[in-house]
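dumping the sequnces here before i forget
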Amino acid sequence: MNSFILEPAEDTPEINFNPETNVFYISKRSLPENAIDYYGPVLEWIQGFLDEKPKQLTIEFKLEYFNTASAKQLAKLLLVLEKYKESTKILVNWFYKPEDKDMLASGTRFSKLIPIDFNFIEY
Amino acid sequence: MLEETENRKLNFALELFRIMQKDNLGYIYRGRFNQEITDSILSLTETNLDKEEESPKIKKRVYSIMVECLQNITRHQDDTKEESNDSFGVFVIQKEGEKYYITSGNLIDKENIPNITDLIEKINSLDKDELKDYYKEVLSTGELSSKGGAGLGLIDMARKSGNKLAYRFKDVSEKFAYFYLHTIPSLSVEGEDFADDESLTNIVHIHEILNNENILLIFNGVFNQGSLLSLLNTIEGQMAGPANTRRKMFYIVVEMLQNIVKHGYSNKNSIGNPGLFLISEKDDNYFLTTGNYIEKQNVATLKKKLEKVNSLSGKDLENYYNERLVDFDSDNNKKSGLGVIDLKMKSENELRFELTELDDKMSFFVLQAKVKIT
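..and the predicted 3d for all of it:
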């Protein structure tokens, strides 16, 4: 399986999934004009990957900012992961800057709403 | 006093929108000017000039006149030493059809009025070649070089614009007056357009509203993802304040502007929705205000939603957010339903709004979020 890579832009994040390490990495900013269209292919790809029943998957969020439309798509992504947690060991690493309380609060909210394993990591 | 601020009507936003629409005023900055702010205004304009695909010649003209204007404000703002909001300078760019208009306003000592008047009248009486000679003459004699060559700046602006300079003074106090300078970079080699006095009158009027409301920045134009991103860059460059406040403002600005992009209404088949965005400051709070058209049929739903969000706080608001976050049934490309809830949460204050019926199809919607500067 090939890597899945989306280059960052001013309003979209950097997305990099490496199927050799099974680490999915999403960083920078997310405020696309149309979040559903932007995240559609990402969700589709990750679903395809999880259908292969890999042993484990780590997803790392290192976002500086995301808008509410993106928040909804991230919730969708995490719900997809949850669906597969019987067949794949899923771990979420949520990075936040110590001074960025909003980013920590967003991660905490997701972890309460969606029952998968979360690590919170200051950077 | 606080009471008055809280209850202040939002109708100034519609008034500004109307005046600015009428004169195609694009961008206004009001406040202290420094190198950083000057740079970010220049770079915003540069991006916009690039987008508009203007000829290199026009770009250069507009750009160099802006530089002169901005330097003029920066150079003279300390002369007046009045630490009140009235001492803020103002800078305005407007574009009408093919033409750009650049206006600066700053406080000066009234003593200088006769000198400035004489100089501009002299400049306006000279033709292109005479102006060139006069420039050389002043340059060599060092006459007029009261402060870093303000005189030269004016001559230079007139030369670069290829047009006459329009100007006006307005009394502020016994000692000080505003000096407004209005320039049109000519599109042809020979100047032919005369600076428009009526549009200067409007700017003077707008400046009054800006002072009353303590408005620091206004953008009036078409809102789409592109203008949103340029505006975010400018705000990041221009807004002072603690990192936490700036971050909250960033969140709020994105949601408010994307609101216009997604829910605003345009009666033309344009590349975005017309609207107004402004930032004002009062009593240690920033106020972020947007104004845009909405279709009348959507007014009731919008009002209900805002009232509901305003009625909730703390845990209830959080729960409402969570509910909407994972509600994908109502999902479509147009709405996430979360934006307004997030605005209230980030602002930690009631959202203020005003809906004004314009005709049988459209209303004007003003929304204001407050952020405490902490």
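DSSP finds 13 helices and ten strands in chain B.
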